[in-house]
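Researcher: Quick test of sequence recovery. C-alpha cells follow.
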C-alpha cells in the first residue's frame, strides 16, 4: 500500500536538519465500526495554523498501518483517493511548519517502526539533548534516516518497550547508560489516576503490550529526554497513548463525544482544544506535565503520573508564545482561555501607552491581522480611541512568521495584506501586532500604511521584545536575526527608525505574565509559571546554555539555503508515483 517517489539520496543516508518546527498533532479513537480518517482530517484542518508545510495521517486497519504524508497544506495532501485508503477506526495525524533546511517531505510525520508490534508517533516540540540521544541510539544499532526529533522519540519508545518485553521485571533492562533528562523519574508504580494498581508485567502474548509495559516504557523515555514536547502514539494491538514533557511546555488537550447512533464514546487528543470543539468533542482537560494518557478500546481512559514518586515536581511552565501567537483564540490551554489572555494583553498595552505617553496623538488603532485583533480591540477600548480594520487579508497565503526564509517573508507580506486606504488617509495610526520578531513583516506593513496616506505610524507589540531564541519548538534561529536583540530598552527610538515607525511600544514582561496568570487565577487554573525564555533568556530545562545556543545558531546558519537538504529523499505515499518517475529499487 506504500509506494515511493523519486529518491534523490540513498535510503541509508542520514540527513541532518536544523531546528525544530512548530507543529500540530492529533489522535483519534473512534467506535469500532466508525472511520477515524474523517475526524483526523477535520482536526488537521482546525490545526492548520500550526503548520502549513506538510501533513500526514496514519491509521490502523486489521493490524496494518495505512499511511499518507507529504509536503503541502492539508487540503492539498489529502484527496478523495488518499482518504479512502486510510482505513480503520484509530489513527494519528500531524501538520508541520517549515524551518530553514527542513522542507524535505521525509520530515513529514507521523513516523513508524515495525518492531515491537508496530509503533507510530507524531510529536510537537524539540529535544535539547538530541546529540546525546542520537549517540545512545547508535549504540542500540538504530538507524535514523532524518534529523527529526520525532524519529528519535519513536525509536526510544520502541527500545524501551522492547526491553520491557524481554525481561519479566524492570531491573536490568537498560543496555546503555541513558542520558540525564529533565529530572530523574522514579521506578514506576504502575497505578492509574485513581491510585488503582495496574496489571503486572507480562510476556509477549502475540496481541499487544499491557498497560504496565507501556507505562514503564514511557516512564523511561521521559527520564531520558529533555526539552519541550507533546506526543501522540499508536501501537498495533494496543491503542493510543499521549504524553507530555515534565514541564508541560507544549500543549496537549483531550476530549470525548458520543459515537453517532451509539452510547459508546469516541476520544480525541490534540494540540489545542479548538480542534476538539470544532468536531463536537467535549473538552475533558489537558494531559498534565509528565503524564501519560492511555486510550484503549472498551476501556475508560487512564491517566498515569510518570513522576508520582518524585521528591519534588518540576515547575509547570507552558510556553508563553502559545498565548501570544500560535494558538487559536477559541482554545483553552491548561485551563486558561487564549482569547481572554489576549484581551488582557491589549488592556495592559493601552495602560503602558497612557503611562509613557499621556499626550499621545493617536487617531485610530488598527490591528495586524489576524492574531493581534483581540489585543488591538481591547487596546483601542482602553485608550478610548476608534478601532478600525485597515488591512484586507488574503487567507490563501500562509502565516509569514512560520515561513522558512527571510526573502519569502518579505514577498509574502504584500501578497497577504492589502491596505484599506480610507482608514489610513490623513491619520496618526497605531498598528498593533501580537509580537515583533525579525521586524521584516513590521517594516513592510508600516510602509504600506504610509503609502495608504497615514500621517504618522506608531507600532505596538502585545508581547515584550524577543531577544533570545526559543529552543522548545518555535523557529527563532539566531539572536542576530531578532530585531530587539540589537537594541537595549533605551534604544527604542533607533529600533523604530530601523523598521520605519515614528514610535514603537513593547508590552512589559511583567504585564504579559500578569495577563496570563491573572486569567489563570480567574478561571481556577493552577498555573503559576510560564516559559518566557524568548523574552528573558531563562530556559526551564537542562542542557540549554551558551554553548548549546551557539552550536544551534551555527548549525542553523550553516544549513540555510542548502538546497541539497531540501531534497525529497524518502516519500511514503498511498497513491502511485508520478508518471515517468523512477521507482526506488
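Model:
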Amino acid at each position: 500500500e506504500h509506494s515511493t517517489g523519486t529518491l534523490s539520496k540513498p535510503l541509508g543516508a542520514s540527513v541532518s536538519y536544523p531546528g525544530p518546527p512548530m507543529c500540530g498533532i492529533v489522535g483519534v479513537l473512534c467506535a469500532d465500526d466508525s472511520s477515524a480518517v474523517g475526524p483526523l482530517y477535520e482536526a488537521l484542518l482546525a490545526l492548520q495554523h500550526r503548520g502549513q508545510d506538510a501533513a500526514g495521517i496514519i491509521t490502523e486497519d486489521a493490524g496494518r498501518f495505512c499511511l499518507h504524508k507529504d509536503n503541502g497544506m492539508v487540503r492539498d495532501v489529502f484527496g478523495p483517493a488518499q482518504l479512502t485508503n486510510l482505513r480503520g477506526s484509530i489513527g494519528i495525524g500531524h501538520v508541520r511548519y517549515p524551518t530553514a533546511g527542513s522542507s524535505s517531505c521525509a520530515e513529514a510525520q507521523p513516523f513508524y517502526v515495525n518492531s515491537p508490534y508496530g509503533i507510530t508517533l507524531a510529536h510537537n516540540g524539540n529535544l535539547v539533548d538530541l546529540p546525546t540521544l542520537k549517540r545512545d541510539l547508535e549504540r542500540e544499532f538504530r538507524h535514523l534516516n532524518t534529523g527529526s526529533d520525532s524519529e528519535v522519540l519513536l525509536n526510544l519508545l520502541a527500545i524501551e518497550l522492547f526491553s520491557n518485553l524481554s525481561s519479566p521485571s524492570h531491573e536490568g533492562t537498560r543496555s546503555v547508560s541513558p542520558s540525564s533528562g529533565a529530572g530523574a523519574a522514579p521506578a514506576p508504580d504502575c497505578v492509574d489516576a485513581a491510585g488503582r494498581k495496574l496489571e503486572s508485567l507480562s510476556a509477549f502474548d502475540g496481541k499487544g503490550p499491557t498497560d504496565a509495559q507501556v507505562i514503564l516504557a514511557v516512564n523511561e523515555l521521559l527520564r531520558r529526554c529533555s526539552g519541550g514536547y507533546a506526543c501522540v502514539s499508536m501501537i498495533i494491538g494496543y491503542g493510543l497513548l499521549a504524553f507530555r514533557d515534565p514541564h508541560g511546555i507544549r500543549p496537549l488537550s483531550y476530549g470525548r463525544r458520543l459515537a453517532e447512533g451509539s452510547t459508546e464514546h469516541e476520544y480525541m487528543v490534540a494540540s489545542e482544544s479548538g480542534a476538539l470543539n470544532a468536531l463536537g468533542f467535549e473538552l475533558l482537560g489537558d494531559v498534565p506535565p509528565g503524564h501519560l494518557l492511555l486510550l484503549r478500546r472498551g476501556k475508560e481512559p487512564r491517566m498515569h503520573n510518570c513522576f508520582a514518586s518524585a521528591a519534588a515536581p518540576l515547575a509547570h511552565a507552558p510556553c508563553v508564545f502559545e498565548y501570544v501567537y500560535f494558538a487559536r483564540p477559541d482554545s483553552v490551554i491548561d485551563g486558561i482561555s487564549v482569547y481572554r489572555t489576549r484581551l488582557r494583553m491589549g488592556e495592559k498595552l493601552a495602560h503602558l501607552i497612557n503611562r509613557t505617553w499621556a499626550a499621545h496623538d493617536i487617531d485610530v488603532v488598527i490591528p495586524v491581522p489576524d492574531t493581534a485583533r483581540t489585543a488591538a480591540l481591547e487596546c483601542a477600548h482602553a485608550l478610548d480611541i476608534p478601532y478600525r480594520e485597515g488591512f484586507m487579508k488574503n487567507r490563501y497565503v500562509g502565516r509569514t512568521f512560520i515561513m522558512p526564509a527571510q526573502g519569502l517573508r518579505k514577498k509574502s507580506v504584500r501578497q497577504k495584506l492589502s491596505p484599506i486606504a480610507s482608514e489610513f488617509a490623513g491619520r496618526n495610526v497605531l498598528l498593533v501586532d501580537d509580537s515583533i520578531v525579525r521586524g521584516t513583516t513590521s517594516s513592510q506593513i508600516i510602509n504600506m500604511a504610509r503609502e495608504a496616506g497615514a500621517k504618522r505610524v506608531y507600532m505596538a507589540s502585545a508581547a515584550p521584545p524577543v531577544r533570545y531564541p526559543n529552543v522548545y519548538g518555535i523557529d527563532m534561529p539566531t539572536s542576530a536575526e531578532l530585531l530587539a536583540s540589537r537594541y537595549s530598552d533605551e534604544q527604542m527610538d533607533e529600533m523604530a527608525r530601523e523598521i520605519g515607525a515614528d514610535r514603537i511600544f513593547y508590552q512589559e514582561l511583567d504585564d504579559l505574565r500578569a495577563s496570563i496568570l491573572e486569567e489563570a487565577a480567574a478561571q481556577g487554573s493552577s498555573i503559576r509559571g510560564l516559559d518566557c525564555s524568548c523574552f528573558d533568556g531563562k530556559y526551564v530545562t537542562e542542557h540549554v546554555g551558551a554553548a548549546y545556543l551557539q552550536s544551534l545558531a551555527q548549525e542553523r546558519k550553516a544549513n540555510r539555503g542548502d538546497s541539497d537538504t531540501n531534497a525529497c529523499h524518502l516519500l511514503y505515499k498511498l497513491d502511485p508515483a508520478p508518471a515517468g518517475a523512477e521507482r526506488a529499487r
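Confidence is low (pLDDT under 50) at residues 1-20, 169-193, 200-204, 562-585.
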